[in-house]
Specification:
The chain has helices at about 5-25, 40-45, 50-70, 90-100, 125, 165-175, 200-210, and strands spanning about 30-40, 70-80, 110-115, 130, 145-150. By secondary structure, it is an alpha/beta fold. It has a 5-stranded mixed β-sheet, sandwiched between helices. Helix 3 (about 50-70) crosses helix 6. The longest helix is centred in the N-terminal third of the chain and has 22 residues, at about 5-25. It is globular, with a radius of gyration of 21 Å. The protein starts with a helix and ends in a 7-residue tail after the last helix.
């Protein structure tokens, strides 16, 4: 006859080992430092534009922390360009890289995100969000994002609804970590990603593989 004490001890030991395995499997949090910029239309439509920019990044961070253990931290928010409107996102991205080069070594931030309040419906190719390139481990992760926004955003906490501009930022940050567009209509990496909130298996694996890669020099 087997006494109940050894059985209970065996069960507790198994549960303890399983708990330790889960704890050990959790990856360490990757912190990505962001310098946020806001163009003239973004600033004009909202006197609280600095808080809005921080809120967009925080909402995207909530998603990435839960899905990939990647935390997005806003290091600073600034006005740029000062008084000039740049309606074309390719032009805005080119100027961003030329006028605001990221310092070599520890410049205090990893990525520059420029928020634009220009009308994104004016011309599709001019008004879509952009990243400087698809990131990878051999050449380093991408470092510049231009994000046209559709409407005012107010951060409502970790359980807030994922609004379109937040989903767009999630999509572009995925490019930073190497994700590419897919034909899967249910994936957030589909080119028409409005209101999608899940990654396809392939891009999820890419982000998990690249999440620890260094940023480009």
């Amino acid at each position: 006859m087997i006494s109940p004490r050894p059985i209970i001890c065996s069960i507790l030991s198994a549960l303890l080992l399983a708990g330790c395995a889960i704890f050990q499997a959790a990856p360490p949090m990757r912190v990505v430092r962001i310098k946020a910029l806001a163009d003239l239309p973004f600033r004009t439509r909202n006197p609280g534009w600095e808080r809005e920019a921080r809120g967009l990044i925080e909402a995207a961070s909530d998603y990435y922390e839960e899905e990939f253990a990647i935390r997005l931290v806003t290091q600073s928010v600034a006005a740029w360009p000062d008084q000039e409107r740049v309606p074309s996102t390719p032009t805005l991205l080119a100027r961003l890289k030329k006028e605001l080069p990221i310092p070599a070594g520890d410049g205090g931030y990893d990525i520059v995100v420029a928020f634009s309040g220009e009308n994104v419906s004016r011309i599709l190719t001019d008004g879509r969000p952009r990243v400087d390139r698809i990131g990878n481990c051999s050449q380093g992760l991408a470092r510049y994002i231009v994000l046209p926004t559709r409407k005012l955003f107010r951060y409502s906490g970790v359980h807030g609804e994922l609004e379109t501009d937040v989903v767009t930022l999630i999509h572009e940050i995925a490019h930073v970590f190497g994700a590419e567009h897919v034909e899967d209509s249910n994936s957030i990496m589909n080119e028409n990603f409005d209101y999608r909130t899940q990654f396809d298996a392939k891009n999820r694996a890419v982000i998990q593989t690249n999440r620890g890669c260094p940023f480009a020099k």
